[in-house]
Amino acid sequence: MLEQVGHGRTADIFVASDNKVLKLYKKGFPIEAIREEYEVSQYVHDLGINVPRAFEMIERDGRLGIIFERVPGTSLLHLMTRRPLRIRRFSRTLAALHHHVHVHSVADLSRNHKEILAHNIQSAPLLTDAEKSKIIHQLQGLPEDHKLCHGDYHPDNVLVTDQNNSCVIDWMTGMAGHPLGDPGNISLQLCNVNQDLRRVDACRNIAHEYLPELESTSSLRTRPEHRLPQESARRLLVHWPRR
Ligand SMILES: Nc1ncnc2c1ncn2[C@@H]1O[C@H](COP(=O)(O)OP(=O)(O)O)[C@@H](O)[C@H]1O
Ligand SMILES: [Mg+2]
Questions:
Q1: Candidates 2, 3, 5, 34: which one to mutate for ligand 1, based on the most atoms within 8 Å of Cβ?
Q2: Could you report how far apart the first and last alpha carbons of the chain are, in Å?
Q3: What is the rounded average pLDDT of the residues 109-129?
Q4: Strand order through the sheet with 165-168
Q5: Neighbouring C-alpha atoms within 13 Å toward the C-beta of 106
Q6: Cβ of 78: how many Cβ atoms within 10 Å?
Q7: Spacing of C-alpha 90 from chain mean position
């Protein structure tokens, strides 16, 4: 029996050896998506971004998996919920890492970024139909771009090893797109992370601290007409029920 070190929406993660983990996907999870995560993880690692190396795809007990380098760290979401007084500092880490991802141009990772984002916004439980249409309309107006976007960026996908070292995991939805789409996605994803009320509080704080921080570390803030994805993130937080 393998020791489990984590779990997410798609998979359980087990210790495979001293420095490797096995990410074992839920039964029936589509092989194309797993292959995508395997290939994008290798691609992003080769760009020099601090991500765990993907070694091989395997099958175990009728489930498909990927062997990854083990990161001896704790998820940023875990730290944020344990140490809420440090939320500002953690949010700065979240923004700085995200900016570091967005500086890479990756035309060969093309997918339909806007269409995927529009689908995510369409499925967001906390937006009204009118808000969804408005955000999607503005999203269509974003310029075409081919920067590296994570597509599922949130603090549970950031592992912190020590004060100066963090890495981004879970690259199945990595793609080329406009960096402004990525922060818009963060709150959509945060809403799905956990219903635990402590985490909900953390989520609200994260977006309040993280969004301005990302805007100030990148040049994105200079284009007010392109702020809508951030607006969607803020709006989701406004609608999020208070304790
Ligand atoms: N390479 C790794 N090293 C150490 N822990 C990991 C690693 N990959 C994932 N984990 C742990 O497992 C959790 C879920 O992993 P993740 O890849 O995000 O799965 P999912 O795709 O299901 O969200 C992470 O938050 C982390 O705690
Ligand atoms: Mg994850």
A1: 5
A2: 40
A3: 78
A4: 74-75, 158-162, 165-168
A5: 26
A6: 17
A7: 15
How far away, in angstroms, is 22 Cα from ligand 1 center?
A: 9
pLDDT band at 197 (very low <50, low <70, confident <90, very high): very low
* C-alpha 243 – ligand 2 centre gap (Å): 26
Residue 242 has pLDDT above 60, yes or no: no
What is the rounded CA–CA span in Å between residue 45 and residue 27?
A: 27
pTM value is: 0.85
Task: Give the pLDDT band (50/70/90) at residue 229.
Answer: low
Right CATH for 74-239 from 3.40.50, 3.90.1200, 2.60.120, 3.40.1000: 3.90.1200
CATH among 3.40.50.300, 3.30.200.20, 3.40.50.880, 3.90.70.10 for 4-69: 3.30.200.20
**In this structure, which amino acid lies at residue 237?**
L
11 lines ligand 1 (CB under 6 A): yes
